[in-house]
Specification:
It is found in: Membrane. This protein is mostly helical. Helix content is 77%, strand content 0%. The chain is built from 16 helices and no strands.
C-alpha cells in the first residue's frame, strides 16, 4: 500500500495536502455551526435545513457549470484557485454574523467556492492516474480531506478549552485557509485528453451523450441522497442524547479520523473487488445507523459508536463513488460528468434537508431518520439490480 501511495503523481499529493488544510479550516467552523445558530443566533432545525439545502444546491449547480467549462477550455487550475480562495474568505466571515441570514450568505459564498473547484479538481485527479489506480487516488484524496476534518475539530476544541468564544474560533479558521490559497497556485494542469473535446461537453440537461449506466447511476445516487440530509442533524441528535457541547468537536473529529484511516485501503479495495460491492456495504451501514438514531433513549456511549460507524460508511463510499464516475465515462467528459455527479448530490440535498427539518419539528426525529434509512435501502436495491455490468 505504501509503495502504491508513493507512486502516485505529484498532482494527487498536492491536491491531497490542499484538501487536508482546507478541510481543517472548514471543520473548525462546521461542527460548531449548529450550536452557533441555535445558541447565539436563535435559529432552529428548519433554518439549519434551509441554510444547508440552499447552500449545497447553489454549489452543485456551479459544479456542473465549472465542469463543462473546464472540459471545453481544458483548464482546471483557475477554478481550483478561485474556488479555494472564495470559500476561505466566506467561511471566516461567519464570525461576524449577527443573524442567521448572514450565515446563509456566507455559507452560500463558501459553497459557491466549492462549486467552482470541485469538478475541475476531480477531473484533474481522474486524468492523473490509470484506471487501475482510480480507487486508490480518489480514496487517498478523500482520506487527506478527512484527516483535515480530524485536525480542524481538535483545534477548535483546544481553542474552546482555552476559553475562546465561538466567533474567535471562526476567525482563527482563516489561517489554514490562507495556506490553502498559497498552495493552490502551485497546482499544475494535467495533460489534456487525447480525444478532442467537442459536442460531448455542450451544456445540456438531457444527458443523452453519456452512457446509459452513468445516467442510471445518477438516478440511484439521487434517491440515496434524498434521505441523506445535512450532517449537522447528526450533531443535533447527539446533543439530544446528552453529549456535552465541548465533546461535539471531539466526536466529529473521531468520525473523521476513522474515515481518514480507512478511506485509502477501502477505496483501493474497490479497484479489485468492484465499486458497487463497496458502495452497497457502505449504504447498508448508513441505513442501520439511521434506524439506530431514529430510536430515542440511547446512552451517550452509543452515540459515540454511531459516529465511529458513520466514519466507516464515509470510507466505504466517498472514494468508490467518484472512482465509479470515472469508470463510466470517457476521459474527455470527466469534468462534465463530475459536474453532473455533484449536481445530483447537491440538488437533492435541498429537499432532503428541508424534509428532514420538517419531519423533525412537525412529527418526530424518528420519522426523519427512518425516512433516510428507507431511501438508503431503496437505492441499494436499485444499485444491485438495475445497474448492469455493461451498457445496454
Amino acid at each position: 500500500m505504501m509503495a502504491s501511495l508513493r507512486g502516485l503523481p505529484g498532482t494527487v499529493w498536492l491536491l491531497g495536502v490542499i484538501s487536508l488544510l482546507n478541510d481543517a479550516a472548514s471543520e473548525m467552523v462546521y461542527p460548531l455551526l449548529p450550536l452557533f445558530l441555535a445558541t447565539t443566533l436563535g435559529a432552529g432545525p428548519r433554518v439549519i435545513g434551509l441554510i444547508e439545502g440552499l447552500a449545497e444546491a447553489a454549489s452543485s449547480l456551479l459544479k456542473l457549470v465549472s465542469g463543462v467549462i473546464s472540459d471545453r477550455t481544458r483548464r482546471a487550475k483557475p477554478f481550483v484557485v478561485w474556488g479555494y480562495g472564495v470559500a476561505g474568505v466566506a467561511r471566516t466571515l461567519i464570525a461576524a454574523a449577527t443573524g442567521w441570514w448572514f450565515v446563509l450568505v456566507c455559507r452560500l459564498a463558501d459553497r459557491i467556492g466549492k462549486g467552482l473547484r470541485s469538478s475541475p479538481r476531480d477531473a484533474l485527479l481522474g486524468r492523473a492516474v490509470s484506471p487501475q489506480e482510480r480507487g486508490l487516488a480518489f480514496g487517498f484524496h478523500r482520506a487527506m480531506d478527512n484527516a483535515g476534518a480530524v485536525l480542524g475539530p481538535l483545534a477548535a476544541a483546544a481553542l474552546l478549552a482555552a476559553g475562546l468564544e465561538l466567533r474567535t474560533v471562526f476567525w482563527c479558521a482563516g489561517v489554514p485557509a490562507l495556506m490553502v490559497l498559497v498552495l493552490s497556485f502551485r497546482v499544475r494542469e494535467s495533460a489534456p485528453p487525447a480525444a478532442p473535446v467537442a459536442p460531448a461537453t455542450r451544456f445540456n440537461w438531457h444527458l443523452r451523450e453519456f452512457p446509459p449506466r452513468f445516467r442510471r447511476y445518477l438516478l440511484i445516487l439521487g434517491l440515496f441522497m434524498l434521505g441523506n440530509s445535512s450532517n449537522l442533524f447528526l450533531i443535533l441528535r447527539a446533543r439530544e442524547f446528552g453529549v456535552p457541547q465541548a465533546q461535539v468537536p471531539l466526536m466529529w473529529s473521531l468520525m473523521s479520523l476513522v474515515a481518514a484511516l480507512l478511506l485509502t485501503p477501502l477505496s483501493a479495495l474497490s479497484d479489485r473487488v468492484g465499486r458497487r460491492r463497496l458502495i452497497l456495504s457502505g449504504w447498508a451501514i448508513y441505513a442501520v445507523l439511521y434506524l439506530v438514531l431514529a430510536r430515542g433513549g440511547w446512552p451517550t456511549w452509543t452515540v459515540w459508536g454511531v459516529f465511529v460507524a458513520y466514519g466507516v460508511f464515509i470510507a466505504a463510499t466517498e472514494g468508490a463513488e467518484k472512482a465509479l464516475v470515472a469508470d463510466l465515462v470517457p476521459p474527455a467528459q470527466l469534468g462534465t460528468a463530475f459536474g453532473w455527479y455533484h449536481l445530483t448530490l447537491g440538488v437533492t440535498l435541498l429537499p432532503a434537508s428541508l424534509l428532514f427539518g420538517v419531519f423533525w419539528e412537525s412529527v418526530s426525529p424518528a420519522l426523519a431518520f427512518g425516512f433516510g434509512a428507507g431511501c438508503a435501502v431503496a437505492a441499494s436495491l436499485l444499485l444491485a439490480f438495475w445497474l448492469p455490468d455493461h451498457d445496454d
